Amino acid sequence: MTMRSARIIGTGSHLPERSLTNAELARQLDTTDEWIRSRTGIAERRIAAPGELTSDLAVKAAEQALSQAGITAESLDFILVATTTPDLVFPSTATIVQRKLGAGRFLMPACDIQAVCAGFIYALSLADSLIRSGSARRILVIGAETMSRVVDWQDRSTCILFGDGAGAVVVEGSPEPGQGILSTHLHADGSYEALLRTDGGISHGLLVDPTSGRGLAQMRGNEVFKQAVKALEGLVDETLAANGLDKSQIDWLVPHQANIRIIHSTAKRLGLPMERVVMTVDRHGNTSAASVPLALDEAVRDGRIQPGHLLLLEAFGAGFTWGSALIRW
Ligand code: UT7
């Protein structure tokens, strides 16, 4: 049967237990709770325990999504994990997740997607294409990160921003057109690498080394901020135009949770009151590829998102990479 659209049939998420508050950070760094809250909207973030890996967070989120969808891992046709902080250089975190879900013997393909904070949207877009092309019927899409392992805890301008966590969705084909994922829009501009990057990597012969500070995240925050606002404004307009929709028809904005001020500006572009924006940045910080599925799961589980609602998901991150997905729930 031809699948004419792809729908999300289950969501899940998981956060590490340990919460790191602004007050704790202010005891270690030259910063204040007031500065962090007013400039970013963040009050606390979760930090993975020693030995707690990206795949551990991913598996817990995936189990919830599978359970909500009422299916088991063996019925999946594909596993995609969006992450910037994989367990290992290889194999992929997706194959580790497959094994931990007990699904290795079912031989479905599994691979990682690396598009930093936009990674979940990239993976969701790929899942949508795989389903509509007939290559897969049911796909597990996860965004999972342990960003705490790649931030420089001496750098007050970046370490206050990030947190750890995972979110997951199960996407399934539907013969009905016009349901579920209505469109996705992806972009990248590699000329901005210098504004947001890690200082090293495998090919440079440098692994993450918190002692020397090499291999850790570096950001020219103010310049990233301006580019993010501009790119997201264009993305919102592009997504609405591609679907012949007016901004007044959007029920929920489910944005990447990098900074409350960036979220405010996107909501303003859409003319959406903040009650129609799913916000987790205050409690999660920026969890990179995990932030959109974490926010989505929260609003699905607490009943804010209801069948028939129109959702706009968007994200912007290093690369730069950015993307959106318009979804009829
Ligand atoms: O998810 C991927 C995409 N990432 C983003 O979208 C992040 C985008 N950028 C941002 O969210 C913001 O630029 C930040 C929150 C990172 C920074 O906010 P800002 O309003 O752009 O501040 P700034 O970088 O212009 O710095 C203003 C001042 C500086 O001091 P001077 O030079 O004015 O004396 C900084 O040194 O704030 C200082 N500062 C801090 N002060 C207290 C920077 N970090 C801190 C801090 N506590 N943690």
Which topology of the largest domain does CATH recognise? Peroxisomal Thiolase, Chain A, domain 1
Strand content: 15-25%
Mean pLDDT: 96
CATH superfamily name of the largest domain?
A: Thiolase/Chalcone synthase
CA-atom Rg in angstroms: 19 Å
Q: Could you spell the SSE succession in H and E letters?
A: EEHHEHEHEHEHEEEEHEHHHEE
- Please give the domain count: 2
What form results from the Cα inertia axes?
globular
**In terms of structural class, how would the helical and strand content be classed?**
alpha/beta
In the sheet with the most strands, the strands line up as 1-7-6-4-5
Oligomer type: single chain
In this entry the ligands are: oxa(dethia)-CoA
**Termini distance?**
22 Å
Keywords:
single chain, 329 residues, alpha/beta, Peroxisomal Thiolase, Chain A, domain 1, 2 domains, 13 strands, 25% strand, binds oxa(dethia)-CoA
Describe the structure.
This protein is an alpha/beta fold and 329 residues long. It folds into 2 domains: 5-177, Peroxisomal Thiolase, Chain A, domain 1; 181-328, Peroxisomal Thiolase, Chain A, domain 1 (3-Layer(aba) Sandwich), CATH 3.40.47. The chain is 32% helix and 25% strand. It is built from 10 helices and 13 strands. The protein has helices at 22-28, 33-40, 54-69, 93-100, 119-132, 156-159, 221-242, 260-270, 281-284, 291-301; strands spanning 5-14, 18-21, 44-47, 78-82, 110-113, 138-146, 164-174, 180-188, 196-198, 217-219, 252-255, 310-317, 321-328. A 5-stranded mixed β-sheet has the order 1-7-6-4-5, with helices on both faces. α3 (54-69) packs across α4 and α7 (221-242) packs parallel to α8 (260-270). The chain is globular. The mean pLDDT is 96. Bound molecules: oxa(dethia)-CoA (UT7). Oxa(dethia)-CoA binds at residues 31, 35-36, 39-40, 117, 156-157, 160, 221-222, 224-225, 228, 258-259, 262, 286, 316-317.
